Structures are given as structure tokens and as C-alpha cells.
Queue: 3 jobs
Job 1
Amino acid sequence: MNILQKKKGEFTFLTNNMEVVSFDNLDDIPDASEIKEIIAFLPEVPPPPHTVQQHEEIHQWMNKFQELLKEIYATSS
């Protein structure tokens, strides 16, 4: 199972228009230039115990979160 292929979770943002928007699929998140703040970034992760492969996939979620943060704050300056 590839968690990033699943792309499900709770993703909530404050837009530049000061609206709170929520999505349950990573692909539905708007372009970073439209986002002012991240309120929630909670991907669905299978319950433990995790395999080594699942740990690597979970780490990919953190990388995606950090990438999104960089994009949002790069466009906000």
C-alpha cells in the first residue's frame, strides 16, 4: 500500500480570502499561492504496528507537508 497514492485525510486551510476550506483528498488542495495558512494536515495513516515500508511512506507525508509549507510561505512574502 502506498499512502501517497491513497491521498486521503483531513486537509484544512485558510485562504487568502480568509475563508476556511477543507478537503479529504490531497489532490483537491488548491495551489499554494491561494493558501494563507495551514490549519490541519492530517493524512490517513494505518494503525500501528507499521512495516518498514509503511514508515517510509509515512515519512513521505512529512516531506509533502514541508514542501507545501515552503510553497505557501514563499508566495506569502
Job 2
Amino acid sequence: MYNIFCGMLRRCNNKNHNSYDRYGGRGIKCLWKDYADFERDMVENYLLHIEKYGERQTTIDRINNDGNYCKENCKWSTWREQAFNKLSKRAITYNGETRTMASWARKIGIKKTTLWHRLNKKGVSMEEIFNTKVRKLKLGKVKYKNQYKTMTDWSRIFNISLQAMSYRLNVLKWSLDKTFQTKLRK
């Protein structure tokens, strides 16, 4: 528990710490004056959490990711629970149900990248995002510039993944010319 307290202080106060930008650099503070205050506020739930999950699976977690480290905003979590609270995880609510992007993608049967593109496309309703079926790319021979080749062959020639070609043709409704000639952004 002492090491966890010291870790909080380093993330919030040490500008040389590799996580400072995500904590102290964003204005996150540790509001406990010293370890004794922290221990008094958190030890009971800490011991209960360790009993249930073990010491290796017990981490301090801020309930509000933009809030400070304090009794009202901290709880003990497993690593998996804490991962849901990270800035890099995007929580999406649809029809009153909140899930991560990965969880929604699994539930509706599409890839995370497909869901990400749909969510970031302007002017698309939540109904369209969650209810549009993914169309498979036809892998038969396709005529382009008077040549017939499979989509797999065109993919190799233009160095574009089948997934990217499918997205361009089926979702963005691009022409073959635009699909093949537009370079992927890095």
C-alpha cells in the first residue's frame, strides 16, 4: 500500500516520471497530506480487495479520470477494471447500454476499426452506426484499366489491404480508381 501511495505522488509531482503528462501534467493532484492519511482512509477497503483478488490484482483507481486522488474519488480495482477507466478506452452509450468500443464491436459482430471509422464519420446517426451490416468484399475477378484480376491481386499491386479496399468501396462508396490510387495515411 505504501508503494501505491508513492507511485501516486511520483505520477502527480515528478515532472521526470514517464506518466507525469497523464497525471500531474493534466492537473491531477494527490490530496492526501501524507501516507498516514492515505492509509487511514483506504486501508479497510484495501484489505477487503486483497482478500478477494490478491495483492497483485489490487490497484488504486480514480473513479473520475479527470479528478484528483482523494478518498471520494478513489477505489481499489483489478487491472482489468482499471483498464476501462483509461483515457484511451472510449465508452459508448447506445440504447441506454454503455460499453467500450471493443465490447460493442464484439457484440454487433464488426471489427473495432470499422466501428471507430463509423463513429468518427460526420453526419452518421447512432442507428446507422450500430445497425449497418458489413458487406463482404467480392473476391472474384474485377476489371480495372482493361485488366481482370482478383481483389487479392489488386490488393498486392496497389499495396492496400483487403479491409481498406472494402471500406473504401462499400462504406465510402469510392470508385475503383479512387480506391486504388489513394495512398493510405500514416
Job 3
Amino acid sequence: MKIRTAKIKDVDWIVELFIEESRKKPYNENWNKKIAKQKILEDFKNNKVFILDDKTNIGFIMLRETLWEKEKIGHIELIIVSSKNQGKGYGKKLLDFSENFFKKKGIKRSVLYSEKGSVAFDIYKKRDYKETNLVMMEKNLK
């Protein structure tokens, strides 16, 4: 089993997995293939994308670095493991990879977004990710 850098040839698989997992609770998103592909291609430009591979693709993670004041911050933009492979520790392997990836770059803080009520949220809390005082806010523009 290895984690490798994603290639453009992986985009269609990533799109399919992204759509499939985004439709489930608590996310309930309804991406169409064309828009999802545009999103993933844009993500390839702005993030480092890695695939957990064991002769078949198991899951993927997207990572990005930003600078905040004088500190570099590592962002886990997206982490998805296929349904048939969930509950086997693969998400934890991807988290371990991301933390080591950031540490090697001298990054001392990793952040991510998570939906309360998701299985992932509980996993992140067990891994010592803490809720912050920052609140994501949104407004529908008409």
C-alpha cells in the first residue's frame, strides 16, 4: 500500500468518488459530473493531491499551504475514502501522511473543515483536532 501523487489520469476516478461520497449524510450534496470535474481540476491547480493506492484506488487527500501572519498553516482541503474501504484505518493513514507532509515543510499547525455529525468529525476529534472559535458563515445571494 502506498500514497502517491495524483495524476491527471486520476481525475475521473476522483470525481466519481467525490460525487458518490458527497451525496451521503450528513453532506447531502448533489454534484453533477461536469461541475464536479471542473471543481476537481481547479483543486489540482491549487492543492497537492495524493491517492492511497493498494492496486486499486482507496481514497485521496488534498493538501494546501497558506501563510497567516508569520506562520505557515497546512490545510487539509478534502479527504475521502471509498465506502467499501471505510472503517479500515485508511482515513487515519491519509491523516498521518498529511501531518508528516506538513511537518517536513516546517508547518506546525494543520486545519480542516468538518461537518458536525459526520463519522469524520469524530475521527478528527479523536486525533486531537480541536474546534476553534472561527465560525463559517454563509449568505445566499439573490
